[in-house]
């Protein structure tokens, strides 16, 4: 009974840490920037979309199945997107065809944690890896924008979902003198089970401490 109480207490601490700390990336903003045009959003008749710059995308509650969908690109560079067994290549030019899905790839039993996808090509710049999405938008450094939700958040008010079962990734490859339109590749990730999250580092640290407490409780009970 004592072990059960310890386990429940540690588990409750883990959940409380995750719920109490809001899911934030570096900053909230919107695309396209300035006078730029995002060709994908224009093709589907959408206005500017709010989401997260410098966000890194996590899966909570896995293992889960993820549908990876490619919606085309408008870029001078040849860029690629890779996520496990799924990969899409863009050889340059405008391949955006409205809301039509170009290609779909399915991943199964994806584990919780930082998702291991990346963009490459980028005019010869280093790969843009999820977990190191810290490009300075103003300096035309490759970066991707994340917005969460099947329906785009077009209310530009500084508040946007930090979790959900659909994540859209809008790549800016740093080319075209920093046009900041984030349409150099458009990827949609849709979950079956679990949720996507862009938590701030303190949220993850608190969750890690709580889980370590859970492990310690289990080891102590086993030793007895």
Provide an overview of this structure.
This protein is globular. The chain has 224 residues and is α+β, with helices and mostly antiparallel strands. Strands 9-4-16-15-13 form a 5-stranded antiparallel sheet, with no helix packed on it. The protein has a 4-stranded antiparallel sheet with strand order 10-3-17-14, with no helix packed on it. A 4-stranded antiparallel sheet has the order 7-6-11-12, with no helix packed on it. Strand 6 and strand 7 form a beta hairpin. It is built from 3 helices and 17 strands. Helix 1 packs antiparallel against helix 3. The N terminus is likely disordered. The chain has 2 domains: 46 residues; 177 residues, Calcium-mediated lectin (Jelly Rolls), CATH 2.60.120.
CATH A-level architecture of the largest domain: Sandwich
Oligomerization category of the chains in this entry: single chain
How far apart are the first and last residues' alpha carbons, in Å? Answer: 13 Å
Question: What is CATH's topology name of the largest domain?
Answer: Jelly Rolls
| Rg measurement, Å | 19 Å
Number of continuous helical runs? 3
- Indicate the low-confidence ranges by residue numbers: 1-25, 208-219
Structural class: alpha+beta
User: What sequence of helices (H) and strands (E) makes up the elements?
Assistant: HEHEEEEEEEEEEEEEEEEH
Summarize model confidence as the mean pLDDT: 81
In CATH terms, the superfamily of the largest domain is Calcium-mediated lectin
**Total count of domains:** 2
Which of globular, elongated, flat, extended, rod-shaped describes the shape? globular
Beta content comes to: 25-35%
* Major sheet characteristics: 5 strands, antiparallel
CATH C-level label of the largest domain: Mainly Beta
């Amino acid at each position: 009974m004592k072990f059960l109480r310890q386990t429940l207490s540690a588990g409750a601490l883990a959940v409380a840490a995750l719920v109490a700390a809001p899911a934030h990336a570096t900053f909230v903003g919107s695309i396209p920037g300035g006078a730029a045009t995002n060709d994908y959003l224009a093709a589907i008749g959408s206005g500017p979309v709010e989401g997260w710059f410098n966000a890194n995308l996590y899966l909570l509650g896995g293992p889960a199945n993820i549908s990876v969908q490619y919606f085309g690109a408008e870029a001078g560079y040849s860029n690629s997107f890779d996520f496990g067994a799924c990969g899409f290549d863009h050889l340059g030019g405008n391949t955006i065809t409205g809301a039509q899905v170009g290609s779909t790839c399915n991943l199964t039993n994806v584990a919780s944690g930082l998702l291991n996808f990346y963009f490459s090509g980028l005019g010869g710049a280093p790969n843009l890896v999820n977990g190191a999405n810290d490009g300075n938008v103003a300096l035309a450094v490759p970066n991707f924008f994340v917005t969460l939700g099947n329906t785009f958040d077009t209310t530009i008010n500084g508040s946007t979902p930090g979790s959900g079962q659909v994540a859209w990734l809008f790549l800016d490859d740093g080319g075209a003198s920093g046009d900041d339109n984030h349409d150099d590749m458009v990827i949609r990730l849709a979950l079956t089970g679990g949720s996507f999250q862009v938590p701030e580092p303190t949220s993850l640290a608190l969750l890690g401490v709580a889980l370590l407490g859970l492990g310690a409780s289990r080891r102590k009970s086993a030793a007895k």
